[in-house]
Amino acid sequence: MCSVVEEAESVAGVQGSITMAREAMLQQLIKNPERLKDLVDEAKDVALLSGLVIRTKEMANSSEVVTYYPFSLFPTPVPKAAFLQALAVQTHFNTLVDKISQDPDFLEEALASTIQADDFTAKLFDIYRHVQQEGRSQSIVVGLLRSDYMLDQGEGKTSSLKQIEINTISVGGFGVADCLPEVHRYMLRSLGLLEESKCVPDNNVTPKMCAALAKSWELYGQKKAVIMFLFEDVKTSIINHRCMEKELCNRNIPVIRRKFEEVSRRGSLDDDKKLFIDGLEVAVVYYRTGYMPEHYTEKAWDARLMMERSMAVKCPDIGTHLAGTKKVQQVLTKPGVLEKFFPDQPQVVEQIRGTFAGLYTLDMGPEGDKTVEMSLAAPDQFVLKPQREGGGNNIYGSDICQVLQRVKESTERMAYILMDKIQPASVQNFMLRRDFPLEISNCDSELGMYGVYVRQGKDTVMNECVGHLMRTKSSEISEASLASGVSVMDSPLLL
Asked: What angle do CA 76, 82, 83 make, to 5 degrees?
């Protein structure tokens, strides 16, 4: 029988050989541009064949012209232990978000300073307070979440999994993420890397995400009622939405699509607070918009309040939306807070806390003053985060100094939190993006884990981790964002 040391050395040997094979392949392609071009053309064809499709920016509201979804030519190495760690902790994050959403005292205390400084969060909280005072109409809760991580290299050679954020509204990417493993396996096999192709894990997120929506629709108990997708005016990623609509259609669940403005004009509540639009009863409201201030007009805010007051199941409801704010993420790192939500479960607390990066308050007072001083002294070691979703909002480097010098004596600073900047180990890859030159790049990656839960009253009906998402960007770019075109979809190559 092998000793533990021998087994570890054997695993390390396999990992090393896979990494070396990948690096050797990249170097050969750099030296052979014709072979690289042929491989890239082949990859794009396979991507389109597999369903990695997106509308073009020039024709964002039409499917007459489409292109391949931006993706990496090859999968990126990820330690299997870190991947399994992220997978294992996701159900605990699901539970944590659900518990936070049900705790008005915690949310009020956690967001007390933020709602003084950030108008968007304040408006969301006003709706939350209104619903709490009026009394919740619906006991069915559904959550579709994604927790995003990076591997922090730190000062040593060992990497550790650190959470960037948890997304509780309009999580995206999973329709495309389901298709990509097939493409990456094909590319590796086409180069003779058969063993390496086995290290790309399957992904089947869409059916499982839809299963949660379907379960909440079923619990609502009205077969003629619809699931309503709320969407934005610009629909570049609508094909990704259609993956969900198709899956729900296959389950014989009716789906409609509406905008905030349409709900405001044509939506209404009956005496039992059932939500109707265009004569159709709405069982589930699924938000594919509503996470940024620019998504709202005054009529949109009125529509949001009406939907939150209704009997319809909301994905997410307003409490779950607030549970995903950056300020709540920061408060959760304080001593004793996780223990409040998981009493007598020290192992769960340890698993969750083990993923936390350093997070610091900017509230007025000595603690916030210390955070300001710390960040101004070494801005490259931190990220300044506002209470926003959707990518492209975070502040880095010298820009942190500009913002904090302006707001450091003002309550405006309470709209932000500060986070340690994660230092990943870069990996070389080719990023395939329409209208971008093909070149080898040093890349950093984010790994996201999708989670779903359904609760009816006090009974948890579903709580699962249902798959993953990987995004890769150039190391020269501070923030990954698929929407802005600076990052691409990727797959983990588990080592």
From this structure: 65
